[in-house]
Amino acid sequence: MILNPYTTTWEKFFTMLSVLLGLVSVLLTGWSVYQVVLPAPWIVVKDLCIFGTLLILTLYFFLEYRKYFHRSEELKRINDDQILDFQRLVAKQTEAFYGLMSDTRETLYNQSGGSSITKPFDYQQDETKSLLYELLDSVTSALVRIMKNHIRVKHRSFDEMLSISVKAVVLGSVAKQLAELDSDQEASVIDDNEYVITLDRDHRTKKELKNREVKKHLYKTNDNTAFTKLFHGSGVCFCENNLRKLSEHGHYENQNEKWMDIYNATLVVPIWPHGQNSNKPRIFGFLAIDCVNASELDVFDSVGSREIMAFGADLLALIFLNLEMFDEVKTAGLSSKY
Predict the structure, then answer these.
(1) Which of 218, 226, 265, 333 could form a disulfide with 293 if both were Cys (CB 3.0 to 4.6 A apart)?
(2) Please, are residues 293 and 264 in contact by the beta-carbon 8 Å criterion?
(3) For the segment 278-331, what is each residue's pLDDT rounded down to a tens digit?
(4) What distance in Å separates the CA atoms of residue 52 and residue 73, rounded to the nearest whole number?
């Protein structure tokens, strides 16, 4: 490095050198005012001083830019590490909340004798219908906000609309009363078969996206890859951020023919009234979130995202269980009168 104590850094050295060259250039220019013609060597020296000053300033600029660039990269790495640490912390907290909710749901199911309930919840009792859909609206709208904040921790520029839906698994006899089917559709429904119906969606989706149906179609559990995987207990969630690519390779099926126009990324979790290892397995349905994912980001993940959605699914299971027990108690009470 430079030994002079006044030029202990490259920045000071370049500044002083450019000032010296600039002064020399000014002096030579002043001399030319009193001289009709400068000697040729001095003209070259003056031009070299001007050129040297510009060259030094340019070099100084690039050195400063390089330093700033490396500093920015270092800050970005630090920031990314902090974001990852924050994500891990949130994931652990979410996992803890999910574990608590899951234990509560299973305890309620076991202590209430849920496996012996004579009539599965049919989602259309007059006494509980308004309460049910008010609760569904609250849960799904809250989950949309939570998931959007979760995604923005990793992708700060993410601003796509998220859509959440609650799917119920019901018998054909219930589906005929619950869904808005025409005569041909109703005739094709088999009473003892199980079907998936979109019971509700988050408030914003229902308001702004009129192409997202509610109770207008029935889906078979074996005609959708996500439903098949979860219905038969081969996974805790179905998570995919590029469904079109998955479909092109023959690994994704969806009975909804228009799904490609609606979304490309989805995360689906089951709504169990009990643990997956129950002797008498049954399922309320599915909780799904999706988005267009035009940028093909890893929007959803099977760790943090899954636990947030699974928490929501267990909350819905608690709601369904309580309403189901209410119906059971009410039915038992009426029966005891006769």
Answers:
(1) 265
(2) yes
(3) 555 678 999 999 999 998 899 998 778 888 898 899 889 888 888 877 766 666
(4) 31
